[in-house]
Design a protein that fits this description.
The complex is a heterodimer of chains A (58) and B (835). By secondary structure, chain A is mainly β. Chain A contains no helices and 3 strands. In chain A, strands 1-2-3 form a 3-stranded antiparallel sheet, with no helix packed on it. Chain B has 835 residues and is α/β, with parallel strands linked by helices. The chains are: A mainly beta (58), B alpha/beta (835).
Chain lengths: 58, 835
């Protein structure tokens, strides 16, 4: 199972590596922005269209 | 206009052609231009949201999911609610827009509208039934919305309140005939105790420390030997304080989330060194506020945005009471003039962005609200100028910066309203005039000495508190003090006053909603003279006002227990001190008013009846009653007689002006009989928003010659469009006969001026002379449209080219292309006054 912690977009919290943010770049018809959604390191992202494997998993 | 054409045409050429919107686009910085164009328009046209704007399902799901989890919790309701609010803030998606220096938004993504499913089930059903506002994939998400709706049936605020209301009053209020509001503390708008939270003396961290002290003290007290009735009450206070603390801590955490995101972007994604620096500055700002007081202008604006965001996380806020030049002014002065850490241009970028952040705010609202507030999400009427508590001029450099930024970014909302007093400098007046001349439709002008006296008269606010006043929504002053500020929209008692005169003819029966709404007064054909007729009018007026006020009073009484506001309480001194919810009536002095939509129809109708029926005996009441019942069908000549040959308000004609004064006098007397739960008065406030269009198909034919379906007058004490025949001074003289201190709470006056006549220095001097007359007559309000018919008609044909043309609708401004055709035509119909 692929988990969020394997993804380039996952940024863990310093104080709790089991939690973090999924940070994505978005361009909508009016503006470009970075968004952050709280996720858990162990969340299943097998069906996530935005998954990009990190080079090294800690 | 194509980019090439824009590039090749100079600012001077655009300004000469009075195409201010193109000039603004060329003049504003690259950053402001980007951010201005980045806004997703959230105002509705004809009740429908713009394509691409969607309801925020994430927020509704987070709220509902946590509510389900908390069901079995033994926590008292206020604590559960606080934990739900904290959960939403801890888990919602956040974003930072490119080039932005300020962050924070009510929804999860820029194109979404925050939807709180816990306010009213009827609102939730609207989310379900509007496929244009449901995000993709529509079918799947509509099913998710259905599940959310089903959960909240019986549990929403309105569902909880309904069994404890007078059902007859509530049905009449919600029938759509006489009211424009729902009696809910969390559905409307709140002012804030800005004197407590925005003066730099404290922030959330300080308040949390204070709450901890209070909790420890009272906890020790309740565990001493002994027990009394007072001890028993203390447990509720402990719960309230705990709930306040939960929400404030959540506010600090979400700011830290923004700080973290800014650092992640700077360290991992952004390559431009200047933008990296900006992102790190955003992070510092969000690490400072709202936990600690702001130190800079950026932090001050950021603090304000967080407070507004959190208030909107807790309730539907349909207004944004604010005095931004007053409360943020010291930081502008420090950064630009003293420490010189910001240039004026850099500060202007921040001010412009602050306007843009406010313009993009949106919460999903019911259709009747959207129809009454076309083109905007809510009335963000920001109060500028005025006096300080000691009576000295409060205008500062930031007052001027706001006027300049407004001309650059040309948002319709926020809109400004300027508190004029005799010591306002010429420099500030010129900046105001430029905004009006460049077609912003704002600032509207408020007579500060009159309104301070008005606040003292109607609600007994001490003069120092009265001087702090901001617009609670469109027009009504409200202090920003411990006992003076108002935490709920008491003007949920908004009355569709045209029904008063309509019900005189129908003995209170409403033929549109098919129910008895007004008083069962005698058949109008039995009335033999004008005084009897007027007596029936008074009875209908009292009945309608009483229905609305009773419902709202009840909502206010129940609010602390059934619909508490722990966050708003947590930033209010009276709640921190007392441990009671901020809506608790005994904590406040009271600042209620009845917004009186469609008021002048009564005056013109009464004058027509008096003249043509009773004085000239040209028609009988029976004939008139029949003609109105048939919507004037078959009686066009008679109808035109009532239009043309009866005197109309706004022409300095004592025949009809005296009737206005009598009507106001009766309303003012009754305003002192009606009392709010804090024990204070309920004065009326004639104004309309776009109620004149919303009610067009709800108000029947009237004796001023109106047919069912015709737009009503544009509101307040403005004359009917095209009915003011004697020039602008006559309009002012009519309005000047009203006592704006004791006659009511405030009186909206729309005027349209010619942009050509008011060009250049001569135009400015003409306007100043006009304003001197306005001030000398003691009129409390005036607002201007200064866009010519040619531009407006062109904008109707080619809206894409006129996106930033703004008009003053009523108590607010909107982009002309964002309002319905009917409203557009109504504005074009307004008389252009030559000064």
């Amino acid at each position: 199972m692929t988990t969020c912690q394997e993804c380039k977009s996952f940024f863990p919290l310093e104080e709790d590596q089991a939690r973090g943010d999924c940070v994505q770049r978005v361009k909508d018809p009016r503006q470009a922005y970075y968004m952050a959604k709280p996720v858990n390191a162990e969340d299943d992202c097998s069906s996530c269209a935005s998954f990009h494997k990190k080079e090294f998993v800690q | 206009m194509s980019q090439a054409a824009l590039k090749d045409t100079s600012v001077d050429v655009f300004e000469k052609k009075q195409e201010w919107w193109w000039a603004a686009e060329k003049k504003r910085s690259t950053r402001l231009d980007y951010l201005r164009k980045a806004i997703w328009k959230k105002g509705a046209i004809g009740g429908l949201y713009a394509p691409g704007v969607k309801v925020d399902l994430e927020r509704a799901k987070l709220h509902t999911q946590k509510a389900k989890e908390m069901e079995a919790s033994p926590d008292p309701f206020v604590m559960k609610f606080a934990k739900i609010l904290a959960h939403v803030l801890d888990h919602k998606t956040i974003f930072i827009t490119d080039q932005a220096q300020l962050v924070g938004y009510t929804g999860s993504l820029p194109h979404t509208m925050a939807w709180d499913p816990s306010c009213a089930s009827i609102l939730n059903e609207e989310a379900y039934n509007d496929p244009t506002a449901i995000p993709e994939p529509v079918e799947e998400n509509q099913q998710a919305i259905r599940e959310i709706c089903n959960y909240w049936i019986g549990k929403s605020d309105l569902d909880k309140m309904m069994p404890v209301f007078d059902m007859e009053d509530l049905m009449k209020m919600l029938s759509g005939s006489i009211g424009w509001g729902v009696p809910l503390a969390r559905g409307g708008y709140s002012n804030k105790d800005y004197e407590y939270i925005m003066t730099g003396k404290r922030a959330f961290g300080d308040i949390i420390e204070e709450l901890d002290r209070k909790i420890d003290e009272v906890d020790a007290e309740v565990h001493k030997p002994g027990a009394t009735a007072e001890t028993a009450k203390m447990y509720d206070k402990l719960n309230n304080w705990d709930a306040m603390k939960i929400t404030l801590e959540a506010g600090i955490r979400i700011a830290e989330r923004y700080a973290r995101l800014a650092r992640i972007i700077a360290e991992n994604f952004e390559e431009d060194p200047e933008r990296k620096e900006e992102l790190l500055k955003i992070a510092e700002a969000c690490e400072q506020v709202p936990a600690k007081p702001p130190r800079t202008l950026q932090e001050s604006f950021q603090y304000d945005i967080f407070i507004q965001m959190m208030s909107r996380n807790e309730a539907i806020e349909g207004a944004w009471p604010s005095r931004p030049d007053y409360y943020h002014g010291p930081y502008y002065d420090k950064d630009v003039n003293i420490d010189k850490t910001l240039t004026k241009e850099e500060a202007l970028d921040l001010v412009g962005e602050f306007l843009i952040r406010a313009a993009e705010v949106c919460q999903f609202k019911p259709k009747w609200t959207r129809e009454g507030l076309q083109g905007i999400d809510g009335t963000w009427v920001w109060t500028m100028g005025g006096v300080k508590k000691d009576g000295s001029d409060a205008c500062n450099d930031l007052t001027i910066a706001f006027m300049q930024a407004a001309r650059l970014v040309r948002v319709a909302n926020p809109t400004f309203s300027f508190r004029w007093h005799p010591k306002v400098s010429d420099e500030v007046m010129r900046e105001i005039f430029e905004c009006i001349r460049q077609g912003l439709g704002y600032p509207s002008m408020r007579h500060d000495p009159v309104l301070i006296a008005n606040s003292m008269h109607w609600h007994g606010h001490p003069i120092e508190e009265a001087r702090t006043w901001v617009h609670q929504a469109c027009l009504s002053p409200c202090p920003t003090t411990k006992r003076g500020y108002q935490p709920m929209r008491m003007a949920n008692a908004t009355a569709n006053c045209a029904k008063i005169i309509e019900y005189v003819f129908t003995s209170g029966f409403d033929h549109v909603v098919n129910m008895q709404v007004g008083a069962e007064t005698p058949d109008v054909t039995t009335l033999t003279n004008f005084e009897e007729f007027f007596g029936v009018w008074i009875e209908q007026m009292k009945t309608i006002f009483s229905i609305l006020v009773r419902a709202v009073n009840r909502a206010r009484m129940l609010a602390p227990t059934l619909t508490p506001r722990p966050f708003l309480s947590g930033i209010s001194e009276r709640s921190i001190e007392s441990g009671l919810d901020t809506c608790e009536p005994s904590l406040a002095r009271g600042n209620a008013w009845i917004t009186a939509f469609t008021w002048v129809e009564n005056i013109d109708s009464l004058a027509a009846v008096k003249k043509l029926v009773f004085d000239e005996k040209k028609y009988t009441l029976a004939e008139l009653k029949e003609a109105l019942a048939k919507n004037w069908e078959g009686s066009e000549e008679m109808r035109l007689d009532f239009v043309r040959n009866a005197p109309k308000w706004g022409n300095d004609d004592d025949y009809v002006d005296d009737i206005m004064l009598r009507c106001l006098d009766e309303a003012a007397k009754f305003s002192k009989v009606l009392k709010c739960p804090s024990g204070n008065n309920w004065p009326i406030l004639p104004e309309n928003v776009s109620g004149n269009i919303h009610y067009a198909n709800i108000v029947g034919a009237l004796p001023n010659g109106r047919r069912l379906g015709d737009a009503l007058y544009d509101g307040g004490v403005s004359p009917g469009p095209g009915l003011d025949k004697n020039g602008p001074t006559a309009v002012l003289k009519s309005c000047g006969k009203i006592d704006h201190i004791t006659g009511g709470r405030a009186f909206l006056l729309n005027q349209r001026l010619s942009p050509t006549q008011l060009a250049g220095e001569k135009g400015y001097q003409l306007w100043r002379a006009y304003m001197r007359t306005w001030a000398d007559l003691g009129i409390d309000h005036i607002q201007f449209n200064m866009v010519d018919d040619k531009t407006l008609r062109s904008a109707q044909k080619d809206p894409e080219k006129y996106q930033e043309v703004i008009v003053r609708v009523a108590g607010y401004s909107a982009h002309f292309v964002d309002i319905s055709r009917k409203t557009q035509d109504n504005i074009i119909q307004r008389t252009v006054q030559g000064l």
